[in-house]
Amino acid sequence: MTDKLDKGTDDARPATVVSKDDGPAPGAPAAIKAIPVRHYGRWVSAVIVLALVGLIVNAFATADKIQWQAVGDYVFDSTVLAGAGRTLLISVLAMVMGVVLGVILAVMRMSKNPVTSWVAWAYIWFFRGTPVYVQLLLWFNLALIFPVLNLGPLYKDEMVDVMTPFMAALLGLGLNEAAYMAEICRAGLQSVDDGQTEAAHALGMSHGKTLRRIVIPQAMRVIVPPTGNEFLNMLKTSSLVYAVTYNELLRATSTIGSTSYAVMEMLFVACIWYLVITSVFSVGQYYLERRFARGSSRNLPATPWQKIKANMTAFSRERSSTV
Amino acid sequence: MTAMVKAEGVHKSFGGVQVLKGIDLEVKKGEVFCLIGPSGSGKSTFLRCINHLEKINAGRLYVDGELVGYRQKGDKLYELKDSEVAQQRRDIGMVFQRFNLFPHMTAVENVMEAPVQVKGLNRSAARQRALELLDRVGLGDKAGNYPSQLSGGQQQRVAIARALAMDPKLMLFDEPTSALDPELVGDVLDVMRDLAESGMTMIVVTHEMGFAREVGDSLVFMDGGVVVESGHPRDVLTDPQHERTKSFLSKVL
């Protein structure tokens, strides 16, 4: 079906172009009219895939044990919404912490000072080398070995009061993320050609200005896409803070699930909200990448809206040419 | 006339490899000074030493009477701070073989960048001046284009305008036409010829013998990290004295 539509537009476009000029130039060669290759394999595979999808949809639609009513009832439940809000909050805060610390670690790792570069290496080695789940539990149980947090004259308090579920979640996710962000930033900074730094230095720009005005803007093109992925990952990994009793989306929905006997239904609700949040941020990421692609290719990729408009005009052109 | 650049026994090695083995030469003010030689002869390295993109290992290098990269107090030599090196580089323009334009900025933004960031010029004045410079290199209509939308020859001319925007007293050209299609070389050389006529001191590493003969005031032939032969371009190119110069010129001319 789509095959045929595509062919239609392809045929139509040259036709309109020709009509815009004053007909084919005298002596121009006749356009090729050939019978297109038939792709039977595509039809067969489409049918098989559609059948499988149909089976799955049917299984869910006809399962009378699923209380679809409960899914609808709880999607906008205030407890669920508050949980989704906390998921968003902890993910954003942990990500901010990860980005800031990650940039610092990347600069430390690339510095000529062997001490700072070694410390950054060791940090990355530990936090990338151990599971984030284990790290969350380490922070949560810190009071077992350090009952009192004593920062000399600055601050002193019981560790259990400091290490709330929120703090354990933030530190666990944020410090872990910093290790990954450090490597992403380092890769980005190193991807910029040395000639750029040389050109900036030759113009008399300082190291700091060169980094800020020349290197980082170019590194962003390499840094932004994986950072967006990291954030989407963070939104989902944040469900692990269930373990440190922070009441985010998964914990909120499961609590309802276990009391209302709608375990699966509440997991569906959680999925719906995770999908909503990740989808919204994917769109944001697309525009951010487009912003940093300036100058790297001759034409910026079209925005979704521009694509829709282009398709609409292509469609109307096709119609006018067939009429 | 005083010397713009003076080199005394300049040595440079990378790891264990000696690239410059004692360069002595003098570039006068207002002169077009051409450096030729086979690849690996050290001519580009010498050029990069002049604005301290490379640190020399021995000898002395002066630009406009000032020691490059160091300060001498008594018989002790002190390394300059990064900010002081940057200060020295402001007055020395450099044009690279691979252009090295900033790809995330338009042509006019490339030219404006250093005057605004380094000299603290306000943006509208810098833009005005940048547009004039782009006009001067024949690219007034390309001000809003990104480097990726320009041909190699156009990019190199923007790079020249970018260097000129800092009002340098010395311009270094590192094989400015080597990465260009033969067809586009002429435009860049025309701009350089105009610049020479305006009295700019220029040191040009090049394989364009025609340009060297026509525009150059002095020429040095380097090989293996040493100056083999020097003199007026017409004399060296038409009547080389050394065997090595003769065999090199017989291959490139």
TrEMBL record, chain A:
Boundaries of every ABC transmembrane type-1 domain copy: 84-285
The record, for Pfam families, names:
BPD_transp_1
State where the protein is found. Cell membrane
Principal subcellular localization: membrane
Q: Transmembrane stretches, by residue range?
A: 43-63, 83-108, 120-149, 267-288
Hydrolase is among the record's keywords: no
Basic and acidic residues composition-biased segments: 1-23
Record membrane topology: Multi-pass membrane protein
CDD domains given in the database record: TM_PBP2 (cd06261)
Region annotation Disordered: where it falls in the sequence? 1-26
Gene3D superfamilies, per the entry = MetI-like (1.10.3720.10)
Checking InterPro entries in the record gives:
AA_ABC_Transporter_Permease, AA_ABC_transptr_permease_3TM, MetI-like, MetI-like_sf
Cite the entry's keywords alphabetically.
Cell membrane, Membrane, Transmembrane, Transmembrane helix, Transport
Assembly mode:
The HisPMQJ complex is composed of two ATP-binding proteins (HisP), two transmembrane proteins (HisM and HisQ) and a solute-binding protein (HisJ). The HisPMQ-ArgT complex is composed of two ATP-binding proteins (HisP), two transmembrane proteins (HisM and HisQ) and a solute-binding protein (ArgT).
Q: Which family does it belong to?
A: Belongs to the binding-protein-dependent transport system permease family.
Q: What is this protein called?
A: Histidine/lysine/arginine/ornithine transport system permease protein HisM
Task: State the organism named in the record.
Answer: Streptomyces thermodiastaticus
The opening ranks of the lineage are: Bacteria, Bacillati, Actinomycetota, Actinomycetes, Kitasatosporales
Automatic annotation (TrEMBL), chain B:
- Limits of the ABC transporter domain: 5-249
**Assigned keywords, A-Z:** Amino-acid transport, ATP-binding, Cell membrane, Membrane, Nucleotide-binding, Transport
Record's InterPro entries? AAA+_ATPase, ABC_ATPase_HisP-typ, ABC_transporter-like_ATP-bd, ABC_transporter-like_CS, MetN_ABC_transporter-like, P-loop_NTPase
Q: Which domain of life is it from?
A: Bacteria
Per the record, membrane topology reads: Peripheral membrane protein
Compartments (UniProt record)? Cell membrane
What SUPFAM superfamilies does this protein's entry cite? P-loop containing nucleoside triphosphate hydrolases
Which GO molecular-function terms appear in the entry? ATP binding
Principal location listed in the UniProt entry: membrane
Please give the family membership noted in the entry: Belongs to the ABC transporter superfamily.
What name goes with this protein? Polar amino acid transport system ATP-binding protein
Q: Which organism is it from?
A: Streptomyces thermodiastaticus
